[in-house]
Protein backbone atom coordinates (compact mmCIF):
# COMPACT_ATOMS: atom_id res chain seq x y z
CA UNK A 1 0.00 0.00 0.00
CA UNK A 2 1.58 3.34 -0.98
CA UNK A 3 2.40 5.82 1.76
CA UNK A 4 1.26 9.42 1.81
CA UNK A 5 4.35 10.75 0.04
CA UNK A 6 3.94 8.23 -2.77
CA UNK A 7 0.28 9.21 -3.16
CA UNK A 8 1.28 12.83 -3.38
CA UNK A 9 3.95 12.06 -6.02
CA UNK A 10 1.40 10.14 -8.08
CA UNK A 11 -1.06 13.03 -7.81
CA UNK A 12 1.61 15.46 -8.99
CA UNK A 13 2.52 13.22 -11.96
CA UNK A 14 -1.12 13.01 -13.06
CA UNK A 15 -1.57 16.76 -12.70
CA UNK A 16 1.57 17.55 -14.69
CA UNK A 17 0.81 15.00 -17.42
CA UNK A 18 -2.30 16.95 -18.52
CA UNK A 19 -0.26 19.90 -19.73
CA UNK A 20 2.43 17.57 -21.08
CA UNK A 21 -0.10 15.63 -23.13
CA UNK A 22 -1.50 18.88 -24.54
CA UNK A 23 1.98 20.07 -25.45
CA UNK A 24 2.87 16.74 -27.08
CA UNK A 25 -0.36 16.84 -29.05
CA UNK A 26 0.58 20.32 -30.30
CA UNK A 27 4.07 19.13 -31.28
CA UNK A 28 2.51 16.27 -33.29
CA UNK A 29 -0.34 18.33 -34.77
CA UNK A 30 1.69 21.17 -36.26
CA UNK A 31 4.07 19.08 -38.44
CA UNK A 32 1.16 16.90 -39.55
CA UNK A 33 -0.87 19.98 -40.55
CA UNK A 34 2.09 21.39 -42.50
CA UNK A 35 2.60 18.11 -44.39
CA UNK A 36 -1.11 17.67 -45.23
CA UNK A 37 -1.42 21.25 -46.48
CA UNK A 38 1.79 20.87 -48.51
CA UNK A 39 0.54 17.71 -50.25
CA UNK A 40 -2.86 19.26 -51.08
CA UNK A 41 -1.18 22.42 -52.36
CA UNK A 42 1.29 20.47 -54.47
CA UNK A 43 -1.54 18.44 -56.10
CA UNK A 44 -3.72 21.55 -56.63
CA UNK A 45 -0.95 23.54 -58.27
CA UNK A 46 -0.08 20.61 -60.59
CA UNK A 47 -3.63 19.65 -61.65
CA UNK A 48 -5.61 22.92 -61.40
CA UNK A 49 -3.18 25.80 -61.81
CA UNK A 50 -0.88 24.05 -64.28
CA UNK A 51 2.11 25.35 -62.38
CA UNK A 52 3.71 22.30 -60.73
CA UNK A 53 5.52 22.71 -57.40
CA UNK A 54 7.93 20.31 -55.78
CA UNK A 55 7.12 18.86 -52.36
CA UNK A 56 9.81 21.06 -50.78
CA UNK A 57 8.33 24.21 -52.35
CA UNK A 58 4.85 23.17 -51.21
CA UNK A 59 6.18 22.53 -47.72
CA UNK A 60 7.63 26.06 -47.63
CA UNK A 61 4.29 27.48 -48.76
CA UNK A 62 2.42 25.53 -46.03
CA UNK A 63 4.79 26.69 -43.28
CA UNK A 64 4.58 30.32 -44.44
CA UNK A 65 0.78 30.11 -44.46
CA UNK A 66 0.38 28.58 -40.99
CA UNK A 67 2.94 30.91 -39.41
CA UNK A 68 1.49 33.98 -41.28
CA UNK A 69 5.01 35.08 -42.28
CA UNK A 70 4.00 35.83 -45.92
CA UNK A 71 4.89 34.47 -49.32
CA UNK A 72 7.70 34.72 -51.82
CA UNK A 73 6.79 34.17 -55.47
CA UNK A 74 3.46 32.39 -54.83
CA UNK A 75 1.09 35.28 -54.21
CA UNK A 76 -1.48 34.99 -57.04
CA UNK A 77 -3.67 32.04 -58.04
CA UNK A 78 -6.11 31.75 -60.96
CA UNK A 79 -8.20 28.71 -60.18
CA UNK A 80 -11.11 29.39 -57.76
CA UNK A 81 -10.55 26.18 -55.84
CA UNK A 82 -6.89 26.93 -55.26
CA UNK A 83 -7.65 30.53 -54.24
CA UNK A 84 -10.33 29.29 -51.80
CA UNK A 85 -7.92 26.69 -50.39
CA UNK A 86 -5.24 29.37 -49.88
CA UNK A 87 -7.73 31.67 -48.13
CA UNK A 88 -8.82 28.86 -45.80
CA UNK A 89 -5.18 28.06 -45.07
CA UNK A 90 -4.51 31.67 -44.14
CA UNK A 91 -7.45 31.77 -41.72
CA UNK A 92 -6.30 28.45 -40.26
CA UNK A 93 -2.89 30.00 -39.62
CA UNK A 94 -4.44 32.94 -37.79
CA UNK A 95 -6.64 30.59 -35.80
CA UNK A 96 -3.69 28.44 -34.73
CA UNK A 97 -1.67 31.47 -33.58
CA UNK A 98 -4.44 32.59 -31.23
CA UNK A 99 -5.21 29.02 -30.15
CA UNK A 100 -1.72 27.84 -29.33
CA UNK A 101 -0.89 30.36 -26.63
CA UNK A 102 -4.02 30.26 -24.41
CA UNK A 103 -4.85 26.57 -24.87
CA UNK A 104 -1.46 24.90 -25.07
CA UNK A 105 1.45 27.08 -23.95
CA UNK A 106 -0.02 29.22 -21.15
CA UNK A 107 -1.53 26.26 -19.21
CA UNK A 108 1.77 24.43 -19.56
CA UNK A 109 3.81 27.30 -18.08
CA UNK A 110 1.16 28.00 -15.40
CA UNK A 111 1.37 24.41 -14.19
CA UNK A 112 5.16 24.59 -14.21
CA UNK A 113 4.88 27.76 -12.10
CA UNK A 114 2.28 26.16 -9.83
CA UNK A 115 4.59 23.24 -9.20
CA UNK A 116 6.98 25.53 -7.37
CA UNK A 117 4.44 25.97 -4.57
CA UNK A 118 4.65 23.25 -1.91
CA UNK A 119 1.71 20.84 -1.99
CA UNK A 120 2.22 19.22 1.41
CA UNK A 121 2.78 20.65 4.88
CA UNK A 122 6.41 21.08 5.96
CA UNK A 123 7.53 19.90 9.43
CA UNK A 124 5.13 21.76 11.75
CA UNK A 125 6.78 21.52 15.16
CA UNK A 126 6.15 24.82 16.97
CA UNK A 127 4.26 26.33 14.01
CA UNK A 128 0.66 27.50 13.77
CA UNK A 129 -1.34 26.36 10.74
CA UNK A 130 -3.77 28.88 9.21
CA UNK A 131 -6.28 27.20 6.92
CA UNK A 132 -7.10 29.82 4.27
CA UNK A 133 -6.07 33.46 4.30
CA UNK A 134 -8.61 36.27 4.78
CA UNK A 135 -9.25 39.69 6.25
CA UNK A 136 -10.09 38.25 9.68
CA UNK A 137 -6.47 37.15 10.22
CA UNK A 138 -4.55 39.90 8.38
CA UNK A 139 -3.74 41.86 11.54
CA UNK A 140 -2.84 38.68 13.40
CA UNK A 141 -0.39 37.59 10.68
CA UNK A 142 1.31 40.98 10.89
CA UNK A 143 1.68 40.44 14.63
CA UNK A 144 3.10 36.95 14.03
CA UNK A 145 5.70 38.41 11.67
CA UNK A 146 6.55 41.18 14.14
CA UNK A 147 7.15 38.67 16.96
CA UNK A 148 8.91 36.18 14.63
CA UNK A 149 6.37 33.48 15.51
CA UNK A 150 6.46 30.65 12.92
CA UNK A 151 3.34 29.80 10.94
CA UNK A 152 2.18 28.22 7.68
CA UNK A 153 -0.80 29.20 5.52
CA UNK A 154 -2.66 26.46 3.65
CA UNK A 155 -4.38 28.17 0.70
CA UNK A 156 -6.68 26.72 -1.97
CA UNK A 157 -6.73 29.75 -4.27
CA UNK A 158 -3.66 29.51 -6.53
CA UNK A 159 -3.48 33.22 -7.37
CA UNK A 160 -3.74 34.18 -3.71
CA UNK A 161 -1.18 31.52 -2.77
CA UNK A 162 1.34 33.02 -5.22
CA UNK A 163 0.65 36.51 -3.86
CA UNK A 164 1.16 35.35 -0.26
CA UNK A 165 4.38 33.55 -1.15
CA UNK A 166 5.68 36.65 -2.95
CA UNK A 167 4.80 38.64 0.19
CA UNK A 168 7.14 36.49 2.26
CA UNK A 169 4.68 34.04 3.83
CA UNK A 170 5.28 30.29 4.02
CA UNK A 171 2.43 28.90 1.91
CA UNK A 172 1.18 25.44 0.95
CA UNK A 173 -1.19 25.18 -2.00
CA UNK A 174 -3.70 22.41 -2.64
CA UNK A 175 -7.29 21.22 -2.47
CA UNK A 176 -7.90 19.74 0.95
CA UNK A 177 -11.15 18.07 -0.11
CA UNK A 178 -9.38 16.23 -2.95
CA UNK A 179 -6.23 15.15 -1.10
CA UNK A 180 -6.50 15.04 2.74
CA UNK A 181 -3.00 13.55 2.97
CA UNK A 182 -1.47 17.02 2.55
CA UNK A 183 -2.14 17.62 6.27
CA UNK A 184 -0.12 14.58 7.34
CA UNK A 185 2.34 16.71 9.34
CA UNK A 186 -0.34 18.71 11.17
CA UNK A 187 -0.09 16.45 14.23
CA UNK A 188 3.06 18.32 15.30
CA UNK A 189 1.59 21.82 14.90
CA UNK A 190 1.31 24.22 17.82
CA UNK A 191 -2.29 25.14 16.90
CA UNK A 192 -4.67 25.29 13.94
CA UNK A 193 -6.82 28.27 12.90
CA UNK A 194 -9.56 27.59 10.34
CA UNK A 195 -10.61 30.67 8.40
CA UNK A 196 -12.65 29.30 5.48
CA UNK A 197 -16.41 28.89 5.18
CA UNK A 198 -18.18 26.93 7.90
CA UNK A 199 -18.36 23.71 5.83
CA UNK A 200 -14.68 23.89 4.82
CA UNK A 201 -13.72 24.66 8.43
CA UNK A 202 -15.53 21.51 9.52
CA UNK A 203 -13.67 19.45 6.91
CA UNK A 204 -10.29 20.84 7.99
CA UNK A 205 -11.09 20.19 11.66
CA UNK A 206 -12.06 16.56 11.00
CA UNK A 207 -8.99 15.87 8.81
CA UNK A 208 -6.63 17.44 11.38
CA UNK A 209 -8.07 15.22 14.12
CA UNK A 210 -7.90 12.16 11.84
CA UNK A 211 -4.16 12.81 11.37
CA UNK A 212 -3.66 12.71 15.13
CA UNK A 213 -3.57 16.43 15.97
CA UNK A 214 -4.31 16.81 19.70
CA UNK A 215 -3.79 20.56 20.11
CA UNK A 216 -6.10 23.57 19.94
CA UNK A 217 -8.22 24.23 16.85
CA UNK A 218 -9.70 27.74 16.69
CA UNK A 219 -12.49 28.12 14.14
CA UNK A 220 -13.62 31.49 12.77
CA UNK A 221 -17.27 30.90 11.90
CA UNK A 222 -19.73 32.86 9.79
CA UNK A 223 -22.85 31.60 11.57
CA UNK A 224 -23.02 31.30 15.38
CA UNK A 225 -25.59 28.49 15.03
CA UNK A 226 -22.75 26.24 13.87
CA UNK A 227 -20.76 26.73 17.06
CA UNK A 228 -22.08 23.61 18.82
CA UNK A 229 -21.55 21.28 15.80
CA UNK A 230 -18.02 22.64 15.30
CA UNK A 231 -17.18 21.92 18.92
CA UNK A 232 -18.72 18.49 18.56
CA UNK A 233 -16.43 17.49 15.68
CA UNK A 234 -13.24 18.68 17.36
CA UNK A 235 -12.85 22.47 17.44
CA UNK A 236 -11.50 23.85 20.72
CA UNK A 237 -13.05 27.32 20.38
CA UNK A 238 -15.38 28.85 17.80
CA UNK A 239 -15.45 32.62 17.25
CA UNK A 240 -17.70 34.72 15.01
CA UNK A 241 -15.62 37.82 14.14
CA UNK A 242 -18.44 39.53 12.24
CA UNK A 243 -20.70 39.37 15.29
CA UNK A 244 -17.93 40.46 17.67
CA UNK A 245 -17.34 43.41 15.33
CA UNK A 246 -21.05 44.24 15.41
CA UNK A 247 -21.00 44.22 19.20
CA UNK A 248 -17.96 46.53 19.25
CA UNK A 249 -19.64 49.00 16.88
CA UNK A 250 -22.87 48.97 18.89
CA UNK A 251 -21.12 49.53 22.23
CA UNK A 252 -19.20 52.48 20.77
CA UNK A 253 -22.44 54.15 19.64
CA UNK A 254 -24.69 53.49 22.63
CA UNK A 255 -24.20 54.94 26.09
CA UNK A 256 -26.68 52.34 27.36
CA UNK A 257 -24.44 49.48 26.29
CA UNK A 258 -21.18 51.22 27.19
CA UNK A 259 -21.52 54.38 29.31
CA UNK A 260 -18.88 57.04 28.60
CA UNK A 261 -17.68 56.75 32.20
CA UNK A 262 -18.22 54.16 34.89
CA UNK A 263 -19.12 55.38 38.36
CA UNK A 264 -20.60 58.76 37.40
CA UNK A 265 -23.48 58.05 39.77
CA UNK A 266 -21.10 58.51 42.70
CA UNK A 267 -21.19 62.28 42.17
CA UNK A 268 -24.92 62.61 41.57
CA UNK A 269 -25.71 65.78 39.65
CA UNK A 270 -22.84 67.85 40.99
CA UNK A 271 -20.44 66.87 38.21
CA UNK A 272 -20.92 65.80 34.66
CA UNK A 273 -18.82 64.37 31.85
CA UNK A 274 -19.08 65.86 28.38
CA UNK A 275 -17.42 65.32 25.00
CA UNK A 276 -16.54 68.20 22.69
CA UNK A 277 -15.35 68.09 19.11
CA UNK A 278 -12.48 70.47 18.46
CA UNK A 279 -13.01 72.23 15.14
CA UNK A 280 -10.07 73.74 13.32
CA UNK A 281 -11.57 77.18 14.04
CA UNK A 282 -11.90 76.53 17.79
CA UNK A 283 -9.71 78.67 20.08
CA UNK A 284 -8.68 75.38 21.74
CA UNK A 285 -7.31 73.75 18.57
CA UNK A 286 -3.55 73.28 18.52
CA UNK A 287 -3.08 74.87 21.95
CA UNK A 288 -1.33 73.35 24.96
CA UNK A 289 -3.43 72.74 28.06
CA UNK A 290 -0.98 74.86 30.03
CA UNK A 291 -1.81 77.83 27.80
CA UNK A 292 -5.60 77.36 28.11
CA UNK A 293 -5.88 77.24 31.96
CA UNK A 294 -9.23 75.43 31.68
CA UNK A 295 -9.20 74.28 35.31
CA UNK A 296 -8.25 77.63 36.75
CA UNK A 297 -10.48 79.81 34.54
CA UNK A 298 -13.42 77.51 33.80
CA UNK A 299 -13.35 74.92 36.60
CA UNK A 300 -13.25 71.89 34.28
CA UNK A 301 -10.79 69.01 34.07
CA UNK A 302 -9.64 67.56 30.75
CA UNK A 303 -9.41 63.77 31.15
CA UNK A 304 -8.10 63.10 27.66
CA UNK A 305 -8.98 63.13 24.00
CA UNK A 306 -10.00 60.73 21.26
CA UNK A 307 -8.04 61.19 18.06
CA UNK A 308 -7.76 58.67 15.25
CA UNK A 309 -9.66 56.14 17.33
CA UNK A 310 -7.06 56.26 20.12
CA UNK A 311 -7.79 57.67 23.56
CA UNK A 312 -4.88 59.43 25.24
CA UNK A 313 -5.07 60.89 28.70
CA UNK A 314 -3.83 64.43 29.03
CA UNK A 315 -0.21 64.41 30.17
CA UNK A 316 0.02 67.72 31.95
CA UNK A 317 0.40 71.25 30.65
CA UNK A 318 2.31 70.21 27.50
CA UNK A 319 -0.61 68.19 26.11
CA UNK A 320 -1.75 69.63 22.76
CA UNK A 321 -5.46 69.74 21.98
CA UNK A 322 -5.66 68.23 18.49
CA UNK A 323 -7.87 69.73 15.79
CA UNK A 324 -10.67 67.26 14.97
CA UNK A 325 -10.26 65.39 18.25
CA UNK A 326 -13.03 64.67 20.76
CA UNK A 327 -12.11 66.20 24.11
CA UNK A 328 -13.39 64.42 27.26
CA UNK A 329 -14.06 66.97 30.00
CA UNK A 330 -15.38 66.75 33.58
CA UNK A 331 -16.94 69.63 35.49
CA UNK A 332 -20.10 71.13 36.86
CA UNK A 333 -22.93 71.58 34.34
CA UNK A 334 -22.51 75.36 34.50
CA UNK A 335 -18.77 75.17 33.82
CA UNK A 336 -19.24 72.68 30.98
CA UNK A 337 -21.55 75.20 29.32
CA UNK A 338 -18.63 77.65 29.23
CA UNK A 339 -16.58 75.16 27.22
CA UNK A 340 -19.43 74.84 24.71
CA UNK A 341 -18.66 78.36 23.55
CA UNK A 342 -15.18 77.19 22.49
CA UNK A 343 -15.93 73.69 21.15
CA UNK A 344 -18.80 71.75 19.62
CA UNK A 345 -20.61 69.48 22.12
CA UNK A 346 -21.15 65.90 20.96
CA UNK A 347 -24.81 64.97 20.66
CA UNK A 348 -25.97 62.10 22.86
CA UNK A 349 -29.68 62.38 22.12
CA UNK A 350 -31.69 61.05 19.21
CA UNK A 351 -31.82 57.77 17.27
CA UNK A 352 -28.75 55.88 16.09
CA UNK A 353 -28.41 55.66 12.30
CA UNK A 354 -27.12 52.39 10.83
CA UNK A 355 -26.09 52.43 7.16
CA UNK A 356 -25.75 48.93 5.73
CA UNK A 357 -27.90 45.96 6.80
CA UNK A 358 -25.69 42.97 6.05
CA UNK A 359 -24.37 40.45 8.57
CA UNK A 360 -22.60 43.12 10.62
CA UNK A 361 -25.27 45.83 10.31
CA UNK A 362 -28.08 43.47 11.33
CA UNK A 363 -26.09 42.37 14.40
CA UNK A 364 -25.52 46.02 15.35
CA UNK A 365 -29.24 46.77 15.01
CA UNK A 366 -30.14 43.70 17.08
CA UNK A 367 -27.85 44.70 19.93
CA UNK A 368 -29.01 48.31 19.94
CA UNK A 369 -32.67 47.33 19.89
CA UNK A 370 -32.08 44.89 22.76
CA UNK A 371 -30.50 47.76 24.71
CA UNK A 372 -33.60 49.90 24.18
CA UNK A 373 -32.05 52.27 21.64
CA UNK A 374 -34.07 53.74 18.79
CA UNK A 375 -32.48 52.87 15.44
CA UNK A 376 -32.97 54.00 11.85
CA UNK A 377 -31.58 51.59 9.26
CA UNK A 378 -30.51 52.74 5.79
CA UNK A 379 -29.91 50.20 3.03
CA UNK A 380 -29.88 50.23 -0.74
CA UNK A 381 -32.45 47.43 -0.90
CA UNK A 382 -35.82 47.16 0.83
CA UNK A 383 -36.39 44.39 3.34
CA UNK A 384 -37.50 43.60 6.88
CA UNK A 385 -35.74 45.91 9.31
CA UNK A 386 -34.84 48.55 6.71
CA UNK A 387 -36.37 51.97 7.47
CA UNK A 388 -34.93 54.09 4.66
CA UNK A 389 -34.17 52.70 1.20
CA UNK A 390 -31.52 54.76 -0.55
CA UNK A 391 -27.87 55.56 -1.09
CA UNK A 392 -26.02 56.84 1.97
CA UNK A 393 -23.87 58.96 -0.36
CA UNK A 394 -26.89 61.09 -1.33
CA UNK A 395 -28.07 64.00 0.83
CA UNK A 396 -31.69 63.18 0.06
CA UNK A 397 -31.28 59.82 1.81
CA UNK A 398 -29.56 61.46 4.79
CA UNK A 399 -32.33 64.02 5.07
CA UNK A 400 -35.00 61.31 4.94
CA UNK A 401 -33.22 59.47 7.76
CA UNK A 402 -32.93 62.78 9.71
CA UNK A 403 -29.26 62.06 10.23
CA UNK A 404 -28.44 65.46 11.74
CA UNK A 405 -30.81 64.67 14.63
CA UNK A 406 -29.12 61.36 15.45
CA UNK A 407 -26.92 60.62 18.46
CA UNK A 408 -24.49 58.53 16.40
CA UNK A 409 -24.00 57.15 12.89
CA UNK A 410 -22.66 53.66 12.23
CA UNK A 411 -21.46 52.91 8.70
CA UNK A 412 -21.60 49.11 8.43
CA UNK A 413 -20.77 48.95 4.72
CA UNK A 414 -19.01 45.89 3.31
CA UNK A 415 -16.88 47.78 0.77
CA UNK A 416 -14.06 49.92 2.16
CA UNK A 417 -13.94 52.22 -0.88
CA UNK A 418 -17.60 53.04 -0.40
CA UNK A 419 -17.02 53.44 3.35
CA UNK A 420 -14.22 55.96 2.78
CA UNK A 421 -16.40 58.13 0.55
CA UNK A 422 -19.48 57.72 2.76
CA UNK A 423 -17.42 58.78 5.79
CA UNK A 424 -16.44 62.01 4.05
CA UNK A 425 -20.04 62.67 2.95
CA UNK A 426 -21.54 62.09 6.40
CA UNK A 427 -18.83 64.08 8.19
CA UNK A 428 -19.44 67.04 5.87
CA UNK A 429 -23.23 66.74 6.21
CA UNK A 430 -23.32 66.36 10.02
CA UNK A 431 -19.98 67.39 11.59
CA UNK A 432 -21.29 67.28 15.16
CA UNK A 433 -22.53 63.65 15.11
CA UNK A 434 -20.22 60.83 16.29
CA UNK A 435 -19.28 58.65 13.32
CA UNK A 436 -18.36 54.99 13.81
CA UNK A 437 -17.23 53.02 10.74
CA UNK A 438 -16.88 49.32 10.08
CA UNK A 439 -13.66 48.53 8.19
CA UNK A 440 -13.37 45.35 6.15
CA UNK A 441 -9.59 45.29 5.77
CA UNK A 442 -7.40 46.62 8.57
CA UNK A 443 -4.99 48.26 6.12
CA UNK A 444 -7.74 50.75 5.14
CA UNK A 445 -8.31 51.98 8.69
CA UNK A 446 -6.04 55.00 8.33
CA UNK A 447 -7.89 56.14 5.19
CA UNK A 448 -11.19 55.94 7.07
CA UNK A 449 -9.82 58.15 9.84
CA UNK A 450 -8.45 60.68 7.37
CA UNK A 451 -11.93 60.87 5.82
CA UNK A 452 -13.39 61.99 9.15
CA UNK A 453 -14.35 58.92 11.20
CA UNK A 454 -14.27 59.19 14.97
CA UNK A 455 -13.90 55.45 15.44
CA UNK A 456 -13.04 52.77 12.87
CA UNK A 457 -13.09 49.11 13.84
CA UNK A 458 -12.12 46.22 11.57
CA UNK A 459 -13.00 42.54 11.68
CA UNK A 460 -9.29 41.76 11.64
CA UNK A 461 -8.77 44.00 14.68
CA UNK A 462 -11.29 42.18 16.88
CA UNK A 463 -10.43 38.69 15.59
CA UNK A 464 -6.72 39.39 15.87
CA UNK A 465 -7.03 40.47 19.49
CA UNK A 466 -8.96 37.32 20.39
CA UNK A 467 -6.56 34.95 18.63
CA UNK A 468 -3.41 36.77 19.78
CA UNK A 469 -4.50 36.11 23.36
CA UNK A 470 -4.69 32.35 22.68
CA UNK A 471 -1.78 31.95 20.26
CA UNK A 472 0.80 34.53 21.36
CA UNK A 473 -0.05 34.81 25.06
CA UNK A 474 -0.74 38.51 24.61
CA UNK A 475 -3.28 40.27 26.84
CA UNK A 476 -6.52 41.20 25.13
CA UNK A 477 -6.52 44.93 24.42
CA UNK A 478 -10.08 46.24 24.59
CA UNK A 479 -11.37 47.91 21.45
CA UNK A 480 -12.82 50.67 23.61
CA UNK A 481 -10.93 52.47 26.38
CA UNK A 482 -13.10 52.79 29.47
CA UNK A 483 -13.12 55.89 31.67
CA UNK A 484 -13.97 55.40 35.32
CA UNK A 485 -14.71 57.43 38.43
CA UNK A 486 -13.43 56.01 41.72
CA UNK A 487 -13.99 56.94 45.35
CA UNK A 488 -10.62 56.77 47.11
CA UNK A 489 -8.95 57.52 50.43
CA UNK A 490 -6.53 60.45 50.77
CA UNK A 491 -3.36 58.34 51.03
CA UNK A 492 -0.15 60.35 50.72
CA UNK A 493 -1.92 63.28 49.01
CA UNK A 494 -2.71 64.77 52.44
CA UNK A 495 -1.67 68.43 52.49
CA UNK A 496 -1.74 68.70 48.69
CA UNK A 497 -4.05 70.76 46.55
CA UNK A 498 -6.44 68.46 44.57
CA UNK A 499 -5.33 70.04 41.30
CA UNK A 500 -1.62 69.60 41.92
CA UNK A 501 -0.12 68.75 38.54
CA UNK A 502 2.22 66.10 39.91
CA UNK A 503 -0.72 63.75 40.55
CA UNK A 504 -1.77 63.78 36.95
CA UNK A 505 1.71 63.77 35.47
CA UNK A 506 2.73 60.67 37.45
CA UNK A 507 -0.47 58.65 37.05
CA UNK A 508 -2.73 60.12 34.34
CA UNK A 509 -5.61 60.29 36.87
CA UNK A 510 -7.22 63.51 38.07
CA UNK A 511 -8.94 64.45 41.30
CA UNK A 512 -12.24 66.05 40.24
CA UNK A 513 -14.02 66.33 43.60
CA UNK A 514 -13.40 65.98 47.34
CA UNK A 515 -15.93 64.69 49.87
CA UNK A 516 -15.54 66.41 53.24
CA UNK A 517 -18.10 65.52 55.84
CA UNK A 518 -21.48 65.73 54.16
CA UNK A 519 -20.32 68.05 51.39
CA UNK A 520 -18.90 67.24 47.97
CA UNK A 521 -16.59 70.03 46.83
CA UNK A 522 -15.85 70.51 43.14
CA UNK A 523 -14.18 73.95 43.14
CA UNK A 524 -11.18 74.80 45.29
CA UNK A 525 -9.42 77.93 46.48
CA UNK A 526 -5.65 78.17 46.08
CA UNK A 527 -5.21 77.56 49.83
CA UNK A 528 -7.31 74.35 49.84
CA UNK A 529 -5.50 71.26 51.14
CA UNK A 530 -6.54 67.61 51.28
CA UNK A 531 -7.14 66.37 54.84
CA UNK A 532 -6.68 62.81 56.17
CA UNK A 533 -10.43 62.17 56.47
CA UNK A 534 -11.25 63.50 53.00
CA UNK A 535 -12.53 61.13 50.33
CA UNK A 536 -11.22 61.77 46.83
CA UNK A 537 -13.18 61.35 43.61
CA UNK A 538 -10.66 60.53 40.90
CA UNK A 539 -11.24 60.03 37.20
CA UNK A 540 -9.19 58.31 34.49
CA UNK A 541 -8.77 55.10 32.61
CA UNK A 542 -8.55 51.84 34.55
CA UNK A 543 -4.77 51.86 34.15
CA UNK A 544 -4.56 55.48 35.32
CA UNK A 545 -6.49 54.72 38.50
CA UNK A 546 -4.38 51.65 39.22
CA UNK A 547 -1.22 53.76 38.95
CA UNK A 548 -2.79 56.41 41.24
CA UNK A 549 -3.43 53.77 43.90
CA UNK A 550 0.14 52.41 43.68
CA UNK A 551 1.91 55.78 43.54
CA UNK A 552 0.02 57.57 46.33
CA UNK A 553 -1.21 54.74 48.56
CA UNK A 554 -4.87 55.56 48.04
CA UNK A 555 -7.45 52.81 48.42
CA UNK A 556 -11.07 52.38 47.27
CA UNK A 557 -13.71 53.62 49.74
CA UNK A 558 -17.19 52.16 49.64
CA UNK A 559 -20.04 54.49 48.68
CA UNK A 560 -22.17 56.15 51.29
CA UNK A 561 -25.43 54.40 51.98
Q: What does this molecule look like?
A:
The structure is a single chain. The protein has 561 residues and is α/β, with parallel strands linked by helices. Helix content is 41%, strand content 18%. It is built from 18 helices and 22 strands. The chain has helices spanning 4-49, 55-67, 80-114, 138-146, 158-166, 198-210, 227-232, 241-253, 289-292, 294-298, 333-340, 359-370, 395-400, 416-429, 445-450, 459-471, 501-507, 542-552; strands at residues 128-131, 151-155, 171-173, 191-194, 216-220, 237-239, 261-262, 272-277, 301-307, 310-313, 326-331, 344-345, 352-355, 375-379, 388-389, 408-411, 435-439, 455-458, 483-489, 510-516, 519-521, 535-541. The longest helix has 46 residues, at 4-49. The chain starts with a helix and ends in a 9-residue tail after the last helix. 37% of the residues are buried. Mean pLDDT is 83; it is low at 1-17.
